Amino acid sequence: MKQNTFLGAVIGAMICSATAWAAEPGDAAPAFTVKNVKGEEVTLAKQKGKVVVLEWVNYECPFVKKHYGSGNLPKLQEKYTGKDVVWITVASGAEGEQGYLPAGELAARSEKEGNKASEIVLDTDGKVGKAYGAKTTPQLIVIDKEGKVAYNGAIDSKATTEAADIASADSYISAALDSVLAGKTVDKAKTQPYGCGVKYAK
Amino acid sequence: MKFSILMAAGIPLVSPLMAAGVKSGHAEAELLVNTAGYKPGQPLTLGIQLKVEQGWHSYWVNPGVGGMPLKVTWTLPEGWQAEELRQPIPKRFMTGDLPGFGYEGTALFLANVTPPASAQGEVELKAKVSWLTCNDSACVPGDAELSVKLPVGEGKPGGDVAAIFQAEKKVPVKMEGAELIVEEAGDTLTLRVIAPNTFNLQGSTVFPATPEVVDPAAPIVFKRAKTEWIATVKKNEYAEGSPALLDIVLFGGMLEKPYIVSWQAKK
């Protein structure tokens, strides 16, 4: 009996550690169903056959402000949704945490920031964020047409809060999307994301 | 009312050398100098002092995950040369789930600057500083344009000399005669320090100064093995291929001051 509980605990721990980072490049992207800011359901399964981007957001984070204030993220969203990429902005912050906004306010704020994503979704319980191992805002994940993770990491190579650095940075997300859209493997498939920690429920 | 007029009248009496701190975000930055005047051709030390508000922290050269090191851009007169910024030893902390290295309270960053032999007259030395402070619930950047005026002259110890002298003790110096070797096996790195007997690494705190080589959450503990010191540590999950270089800082325990040891992969 005791042994059973022990085994259960070990297996439980194994499962936990296996799911802690389930979004390594090459892994099948974890399935999810969430609600967008209009209250409609958004599922990954329905995007099969399309390239998907997941972008973690918190508009109060200075690293996020860098990429919205400069227009960099809206430009990327516009460019790649124009190439039939499904761009999903994900808010994984828990209620009461910095940057958390209820659906209506998140929609209004996203519009004000110039967000051009296909979908803006709420992941208030952090399930999607944790399934993908999202650590920071911003953080970007690219899922290829077969539903595999093709890129997971930083938006670009300069981990600063200064918009002036964007022009001279290597845009990891652009390079990843261009490769995936061309049917090639991504050269830098995993990079250290930079930004503020995702404000998961404590 | 009268009191405030008196106060205002008192301001011009403050020496022009007294730099004032600039508050921004959750910290205050100030430019310090270790002399009251400069000598042409002779190096002097400038200090960037960052006072971080209680409950917040700023970041080291290796910020860990999700931080940002302090950045300084100097604007110096023609011919003046600034050396690399020297960062004091940091603390290890967690910001929510993210491991990092940095500073709470006051940190003093140092840089040696050298005027040219032809330098003359009073000069203004300027520094544009930017930093990030975080706590568990938010990150707030700060920036400041700092300056200090310095006359040419005897270079008597100025008001900041004691602070800079104390700060030097917190900045790692090269561990003379010591060698660091890094060996990779899967996702484990073995660090070997071969050091003269004068250095006892027992119980010292060790941090990786080079980002994205060592897992920032992993403790580094050196154990004596015959003629060398060995520590095994988890490789950083974002390390690209094999590491090419690693600087480690060591302090505390049996060490009299903070040291730095560097390794570079053989080409």
TrEMBL record, chain A:
Pfam families per the UniProt record, alphabetical: Redoxin (PF08534)
InterPro entries: PRX-like1, Redoxin, Thioredoxin-like_sf, Thioredoxin_domain
Signal peptide: 1-22
Superkingdom as given in the UniProt entry: Bacteria
Gene3D superfamilies: Glutaredoxin
Residue ranges occupied by any Thioredoxin domain in the UniProt entry: 23-182
Name of the molecule in the record: Redoxin domain-containing protein
Automatic annotation (TrEMBL), chain B:
Signal sequence annotation: 1-19
Residue span(s) of domain Thiol:disulfide interchange protein DsbD N-terminal: 40-147
Keywords linked to the UniProt accession: Signal
InterPro entries in alphabetical order: DsbDN
Name of the protein this chain belongs to: Protein-disulfide reductase DsbD family protein
Native organism: Luteolibacter rhizosphaerae
